[in-house]
User: Fold this.
Amino acid sequence: MIVLNVAYSEPVNCSDPLTPILTQEQIWKGLEMKARRPQDFIPSFDDSRVVEERDDGSYIVREAHVASDLHESPMAGRWTREECRFH
Assistant:
């Protein structure tokens, strides 16, 4: 099994006064939504399902389906399994 650990940082709440300010809670909820329903955020996924979850909400295992019409990907039409840890 291949294990990839990925961390990513992105600035939020730019200085543009016309852009709404997001709270830490709103940002966290958005990240949780992306982990649970990646197809709403990643065009190459067209379906997903949570197959395992901890009661405290700190961990899920999800399966995401790579769109069948994504011909340039060797994963097109296949399911991928990912562990998501929230800390």
